[in-house]
Amino acid sequence: MYWVVTCFMKLCMLCMLLMITMDTTEAQKQLKVGFYKTTCPAAEQIVRDTVNKSVTANPGMAAGILRLYFHDCFVRGCDASLLLKTVPGSETESEQDAGANAGTLRGFEIIDQTKAQIEAACPNTVSCADILAFAARDSTTIVGGFSYAIPSGRRDGTISNIDDVELPSPDSDLNTLKNTFVAKGLSIGDMVALSGAHSIGRAGCNSVTSRLHFFNGDQTDPSLDPTYAAALKKKCPKSGKSGTTNLDPVSANRLDNQYYLNVKQHKVLFSSDQTLLDSKLTATLVTKYSSNLTAWRNDFAAAMIRLGSLDVLTGNNGEIRNKCGVRN
The pTM is what? Predict the structure, then answer.
């Protein structure tokens, strides 16, 4: 009897997983390049112009926008739930208040400015989720020198819960990273390709001090290049953890394959980056991308498109927000 009940429960779970997969696939099929061609033909150009102006003035904003895109899509799918602010007096805090996000996210104002312009041109038509996807693509173009066609047609979610936020951390080991990405429907190759985004942006010293001053602060992580570690210690001394430092010590404002050279040379901030050398598959990809910029660009673009298709809301699901920070 126990065996029958157990098999029945497993069958039910399998059916539920298949139903979820079918629903996700159907939603993804509704995304298409040029979704707003007739309903709001100027949408993508408005995003492009606004992002270009902002990132040209402050190249660091490109990393901020890419981070918004990743942190949004990795939690509840690409539904702009990350853009929702905590409602004053609410018992539930939004994703923005989670430890991995609180006080470190940048680029909201760029998305808000873009949304306001698009609403003036095409009211109640273009989702915040799509604006963020376009903005990530355009940031890539400005600081990386390459582009890709991103399908659109996403709708905005109405839920943003701090408890839903489970993101890879700077000290994640390779198995944790693999399991996290695969659970989201992404491949190991996607994981390595997307990691290249760490060739731009900055990080707080508190995210690297554990590698610089561990074992009671007397030793340095042996996987760090000694010269690089010494330079980091000057920027991030043991006594102070409030500073920031570039993720890429060579080309901090250029989205390129320098990141993979840094990994090979043990000159990366996060142990979650250095761990890419811990398996034959990921190490082979690191070597490939370090010497083949075109291959990395192609795989990064493809991975960004797949990332943007995770658990999307389409059709009559969700809503088209009037303002990205609040529900309608």
Answer: 0.90
